[in-house]
Amino acid sequence: MVLSLGAGLASCVITPEEMEHSPIDPKRAAAFAAKDSNGNEVALYTLRNKNGMIVELTNYGATIVSINVPDKKGKVENVTLGYEDHAGLAAGGSYFGCVVGRYGNRIAKGTFKIDGAEYHAPLNNGVNTLHGGIKSIDKQVWKARLMNDAVSFSITVPDGENGYPGNLKLKVVYSLREDNSLAIDYTATTDKATVINVTNHAYFNLSGDPTQKILDHELMIHADRFTPVDSTLIPTGELRAVKGTPFDFTQAKAIGKDIDATYEQLQFGGGYDHNFVLNERDPQAPAVVVTEKNSGRKMEVFTTEPGVQFYTGNFLNGNEKGRGVAYQHRTGFCLETQHFPDSPNQPSFPTTLLKPGETFKSQTIYRFGIDGEK
Ligand code: BGC
Predict the structure, then answer these.
(1) I need a labelling partner for 217 at 20 to 30 A (CA). Which of 37, 40, 79, 283 fits?
(2) In this predicted model, what pLDDT tens digit does every residue of 84-123 receive, in sequence order?
(3) For 128-171, how does the pLDDT look when each residue is reduced to its tens digit (9 = 90+)?
(4) Which of 311, 315, 327, 339 has most ligand 1 atoms within 8 Å of CB, for mutation?
(5) How many CA atoms lie within 13 A of 252 on its CB side?
(6) Cα separation of 234 and 229, whole Å?
(7) What whole-number distance in Å separates Cα of residue 217 and Cα of residue 102?
(8) What are the pocket residues of ligand 1 if the criterion is a CB atom closer than 6 Å to any ligand atom?
(9) Are 153 and 169 within 8 A, CB to CB?
(10) How many CB atoms within 10 Å of residue 343?
(11) How far is the CA of 311 from the centre of ligand 1 (A)?
């Protein structure tokens, strides 16, 4: 059933299926309801499971608005940074919870070649292009379809938009499962060879309190190597061993333990803002595990992607507001599962080329639980 739950919900007769998607609070639905200049409707969509987990989504940017999960005492709290309303989301510059693309993270000087032809994306991050360019898919209205335990968002990114070739048909499906996992499935096709790297840009703070820094969270990343960057955060092409560096998260350690170490890569990022090269692993094994002691919350990340951008909210400085607070430095972290930044210019990296006739597929699962419990 295709259904949009906007501000008018209160006047509808609610069926059991609709109930599953009913907003936490009708005022929330109203705050996230909008229309773009072409008359496309924006709405809030809610998924809930039997354990009290609630995920709010909007078709503006295919964005995660909130993820609400129980702590060790059963208290359900939002573990993501987010905006108060649609206007905040539309004006925001930190990519809270949205899907970034068509090329997530950076392309050096916004320039790349496919089959000898050179393409240019707009520079929106110093001398580089970040997260697709200007008014990219994170600032557009997607088509939404509600399913029982899932919401599907789709968009066609026109040939030439932001300089990228090919009409790209992109679909993102968010599914909430009874084991407290949120699965994100991406599929895409194109009618001209293009580059693609899509990911979700949620910022997490498992304490549930967005005024607290994330430095005490314990993190394990199943990665023996990372991709060092230059001062503009473009990978140099090297795959550097994490062993003996502040980038060694192969055994769980506090995010803040080495974050201010004197190590050039940390100076370039103002903290961690780097792609980790995920090790080969059993598909059932998480690529990343994060725990937060006080709440007892645990998050495991599973992905089919070869890399993950670990970003510690180094650029947050109180300018972005939501949930009644101004988000301060390092109060959220991102784990953006992805292909490596600047892959179109780095022949040794896994390819991000998508050709007509091929189907791009990618899956990432964020699974929530309590540390020490099965
Ligand atoms: C980038 C950061 C950037 C952040 C928000 C991350 O994916 O690597 O450098 O500041 O997104 O835009």
Answers:
(1) 283
(2) 999 999 999 999 999 999 999 999 999 999 999 999 999 9
(3) 999 999 999 999 999 999 988 999 999 999 999 999 999 999 99
(4) 311
(5) 15
(6) 5
(7) 31
(8) 94-95, 105, 233, 273, 309, 311, 315, 336
(9) no
(10) 27
(11) 7
Question: pLDDT digits over 284-342, tens only?
Answer: 899 999 999 999 999 999 999 999 999 999 999 999 999 999 999 999 999 999 999 99
- Residues whose CB falls within 8 Å of the CB of residue 371, separated by 6 or more in sequence, listed in order: 72, 291, 293, 296, 297, 298
Name residue 184's beta-bridge partners: 174, 364
Catalytic residue set: 201, 336
Place of tokens 């987010």: 82
Nearest-angstrom CA–CA distance, 325 and 287: 31
What is the Å distance from ligand 1's center to 334 Cα?
9
Which residues contact residue 31 at a Cβ distance below 8 angstroms, ignoring those fewer than 6 apart?
A: 44, 84, 85, 86
23: confidence class by pLDDT, cuts 50, 70, 90: low
What residues form DSSP beta bridges with 220?
Answer: 289
Q: What is the mean pLDDT of the chain?
A: 94
- DSSP for 84-125, please give it: SSHHHHHH-SS-TTPEE-SB-SEEGGGEEEETTEEEEPPP-B
H helix intervals, the chain: 16-20, 26-31, 86-91, 264-269
Cα of 105 from ligand 1 centre, angstroms: 7
Residue 230 buriedness (CB in 10 A; 0-12 / 13-18 / 19+)? exposed
The partner residues of 128 in beta bridges, in order of sequence, read: 125
pLDDT the model gives residue 148: 82
What lies within 8 Å, CB to CB, of 361 at 6+ separation is: 185, 186, 187, 304
Nearest CA to ligand 1 atom 2: 273
